[in-house]
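cron nightly-structures :: item 1 of 1
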Amino acid sequence: MEHLFEQLQQNFSQIVGYIYPNEIELHWGILIVVYPYITGLVAGAFILASLERVFDVKEVLPTYRLALLTALAFLIVAPLPLLAHLGHPERSFEIMITPHLESAMAMFGFVYLWYLLVVLILEIWFEYRGDMVLWSRSGKGLKKYFYYLLTLGSLDTSEKALWFDQKAVKFITIIGIPSAFILHGYVGFLFGSIKANPWWSSVLMPIVFLFSAIVSGISLMILVYGITALFRSKQIDMVCIDKLASFLFYTLIIDVSLEVLDFIHRVYESVESIHIMEQMISQKLFISLVVVQLLIGTLLPLTFLAFTKLLRFPDELKRLIYFVTAILVQIGIFSTRWNVVIGGQLFSKSLRGLTHYKMELLGIEGLLISIGLLIMPLVILAILIKILPPWQDRTAAVS
């Protein structure tokens, strides 16, 4: 009893102003922060892949297949934070058995399956089909039969068949672009449609989520491309990484402009919630929003990228700047997701007080589980790269 009293006293000591007792504990924690962060990486990586296939940006060709595999690896893990948060993940199948088409939450199940089965897996299969046929013919033992199974019996490598594969890939990519927008834009729609919460209720929320997803996906591919080249002892294609950095620079400008526009709109409206949001930003979210998201994750990367465009740097220094910038952007985007999910739960429904979020280390909602969910896609990506090498020498047999 004494321990419980001390715990309550500690919780109440973090409260500022007036807040209802049932609003002390936050319903959504770190797992719900990880979820939109991962789906944003999926959408961003796929949109980057579409630049070469649909918009004919040949400079990013070295990252095309790598971006597809990266999107697939993160998409496999994307629903796991939600399932872990539910506590009864087996109930998720009820979405398919008893569909409720008017529920934004339920629609994620359909969008996810469409994007996973129809878009990503189909595009990867058509892209790799010709290579898998060659690998099945040149392989030995289990490897030979493994790649044969992946071809699904489609062994035609004629010029007409390969031409059809590439046309199918382009068609699926065109379908995949709006699908990627829906996959991650719906998350922003979900938050933006909650009218009772002034921190989330904004018509710009889906658009901000989309552009931040593109930013995170491009910066992720800079890191993945650079690290894989390092492990393979291969020279980084500077034309490719310069183009990636240019896209990152422009999309980051659009992203920060949209967020500033959203903030100006809130201030201009001068709704009754503006005062509690000012307190929340200056007290509870100052480090995560102003310092980490704005300064470290946005302004500093923009400054670094602007210098690389205005000044001449050696390739080695330029690559280092790009990698540091990509890391800072990832930190900033994760902080953005944190500020949206956690920040929207820090003030009371009466708009008169602020609470706090205490993250656990262990447990299903703890920090270690979240770190594991962020590492898991990288492990899956390493396996996918071993099975389906995305390099330019892609027709070579797998070692």
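cron nightly-structures :: done
Residues 51 and 204 are 25 Å apart (CA to CA).
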